[in-house]
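Format notes (please read before filing issues)

Several people have asked whether sequences and structure tokens are stored in separate files. They are not. Every record keeps both together, in the order shown below: the sequence lines, then the token lines. Line labels are part of the format and must not be stripped during preprocessing.
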Amino acid sequence: MSENQRVIAGRYTLGNLIGRGGMADVYEGTDTILGRKVAIKLLKADLAADPNFESRFREEAQASARMAHPTIVRVYDTGEESSIDDNGTERRTPYIVMEYVRGTVLRDLMHERKISTPEAIGYAEGILTALEFSHRAGIIHRDIKSANIMVTDTGLVKVMDFGIARTISDGSATQAHTTGIVGTAQYFSPEQARGESVDKRTDLYSTGVVLYEMLAGRPPFTGETAVSVAYQHVSEAVTPPSVFNPELSAALDQVVLRSLAKDRNDRFQNAEEFRESLLAASLDPTAAPAPTQVEETPVEEPTFEELLSEDFVVPEAAPTVEEETISPPTEAFAPTSDTNPFATIGVEFEDIDNEDSPKPAKKSNPSQRPSPGLLWGIGSGVSVVLVGLLVWLLAFGGGGVLNFHPSEGGTPVAAVTGLTYDAAKALLEGQKLVVSEQFETSATVDADSVIRTDPPAGTKVAEGTMVILYVSSGKTQVAVPDLAGMTEAEAQIALENAKLTLGTITEGNSASVAKGAVLSTDPVRGSQVAQGSVVNLLISSGLVTVPDVVNKNLSDALRILEGPDVALTVTTSSQQPCAGGAAPLGVIVLQQSIPAGNVAAGSAITIYVSCTQ
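Then the structure lines:
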């Protein structure tokens, strides 16, 4: 059976090969059950037996499948297909079934023509919207670059390739642990270049590089090798993009430079903050002039029901603006021209000329019309923007999750508050809903139990809707302060300031700490504990414990009694005067003036030895 006759998982037929890469091949495909075109990514046969590649392939599917958002390429299905090769050996082929996208890779778009400032802002807004959603889902992309961004024919952005993504809880993984990414040094954050741990601010830095590249027409750093470029990200100052594009405003310069701060604490701390600052800068009166506006044609305002309809068409804002259809996020698109839309998921295309392939429709030049991403974000008085903004609010009003809440129809979200995450997840997945986990501290809900859901319990939603489970991580964690040397009263104040509770107080002996001062705490200093936790104190009694040194060698006895744990003042003598008054003393202790037990710190003690003849 030839490749284009294969059927995967009994429902996906493979069509033409549309791309090949070092790790996988990508085919056109058809979901025979839902009747939609899909893209099917198959791990290469020689890699399928390698646990490392198979694991990475699976992680890509799992990371992408957790995120259902119009700005992220959807993963519909994943699994392993078994087949028998020519030698009669069973062959396992992991596969990923993805959304089929029509558009142009941002990298190719920048090579074709200059990106206008409004377009650049709109595209960056789309990337940041995708990152806001993925970060809320607990996923760090770690490889944001222009080659991983698709601009659809309608001017919207789709982020691709979560193949090296990591969960935020696994943020300790460093860039050095990921294979096949040396070529992306142009977009490295300083922490990635140093091989340090990454977090969501790493993605924001890489987005800043993409934004700089669009605005300035060139990347912030260039070099002959990846190492030289990475070094510049770590140590070289960024030249403001306005140096290369004088039309840019000072406000845009400031946003870009902040996004590219070397210290991640000086950058934007989340995607929403970055996006809002960028849109605010775009409204700055000194910003680059917007494209020439044409006279607008009044349009009739749509009804609420029309906005929710999949067939709703955005009215024309002007004769030069093409009619666009706002489609649900799962709508499939076909690749356009010779652009490789799947290069962003780790696949390089071959030039495959198939006369049976449908010919793409002629595209309009996005630079000749306002960027839809920008229009939706900024919001002007034009009717198209009002409609787009209303659709945006309807779609993303629930904290970034695509949740339509119709009053009738759909499945009511189960009430899972108080259940453990595993139990709640099983219940919701039984309703054919997609579950995402997000942690929150809680003073009242036990750790690993569900605090609430979004959408709330009882909301009627369609199958496949994502439900965020807000799971308790327990009470807010605080560090036990260093109380050593403090008095009891001082220690109590320090604990109250740390929102901790003073527990039991026990005395302990010490040769170096004054009576009444804190020796140690339980839990020990620096320990992370929940707010309100009890901290017990060990306070110095002002005493030391005298050990029994009788029958010990004199040198050993002196070492023990004068050591830091006892620190007594020791005198050596004989039990009776030695003959002649100057006879040498013996080496075995016969008696000590203070018996074993507690004594005030710094006390004097005499140990007695025999006289030698």
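For reference, the curators noted about this record: Confidence is low (pLDDT under 50) at residues 164-183, 286-370, 374-408. The domain at 111-289 is CATH 1.10.510.10 (Transferase(Phosphotransferase); domain 1).
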